[in-house]
Write a structure and sequence with these properties.
Its EC number is 3.1.1.23. This is acylglycerol lipase. Pfam families: Abhydrolase_1. It is a single-pass type II membrane protein. Helix content is about 45%, strand content about 15%. The longest helix has 27 residues, at about 5-30. It contains 13 helices and eight strands. Strands 1-2-4-3-5-6-7-8 form an eight-stranded mixed beta sheet, sandwiched between helices. Strand 5, helix 5 (about 150-160) and strand 6 (about 165-170) form a beta-alpha-beta unit.
Amino acid sequence: MDLDVVNMFVIAGGTLAIPILAFVASFLLWPSALIKIYYWYWRRALGMQVRYVQQEDYQFCYSFRGRPGHKPTILMLHGFSAHKDMWLSLVKFLPKNLHLVCVDMPGHEGTTRSSLDDLSIDGQAKRIHQFVECLKLNKKPFHLIGTSMGGNVAGVYAAYYPSDICSLTLVCPAGLQYSTDNQFIRRLRELQDSATLEKIPLIPSTPEEMSEMLQLCSYVRFKVPQQILQGLVDVRIPHNDFYRKLFLEIINEKSRYSLHQNMDKIKAPTQVIWGKQDQVIDVSGADTLAKAISNCQVDLLENCGHSVVMERPRKTAKLIVDFLASVHNTDNNKKLD
């Protein structure tokens, strides 16, 4: 073999070795940094841009793709202790001609965290309305999506500000009242009674607790390496005191049944998507919503738990796009009549 060719392979091998070694070192030593890089890369690949907007002394962080057009903007509200990037798996399967906005909920990620903030569902809905006003998203009615805690907030938002939205998607939303508690809720009540709320299942502080939370929230059993579990925990631990405060706020009497108390005020066409094997919030809530909201479509997903967006992103995206198309076409037909 020619010496120049050998030298080329040596140089190329050395060049490749540097990023490979850096990756391995990050994976083993700083998995939380690797997770942040992963989200940055995924946002970039999907064309999602991060921006900040101020409302007086309050800052909202959000990501977006596209521009407002003749189709409604889609605003997405994430769940408890998550962030705007949880929607990326769904964004991947949504058409690129849609204007998408994913906001960090109050106190989460890049949005202001204040000890004076009202973290109740009512308070969060009002904060999101401030965000909507800042970006003038309600210049034309938009489609609102919320999951879990974000679904509770989205439903209350739809009841409070009906002229802002043209349609609504609730993905396994919290905030409903049930005649009987599921196993997860019974466990929470036991923790409350025993005053041991330091061990809330949705606030992990070790890789083992993180693994248990993933199993609780997902029907699909993801095989997550120990280093990644550690990274996920490392990212969350600095925020666990806030998560604990928020959790206690949203399960108290003021917020626990907020969606239930406001669901009959929702007038927008509504879509409910729920995993049939949801262990966190019982799927029977879908029937409760369907009976209370006059124009409501229910889509139940087989072999799917609470983390619908992560477990079934392609299917969820298709359901949302089809729902929007049906609502949009109906509105167009009414205009022609």
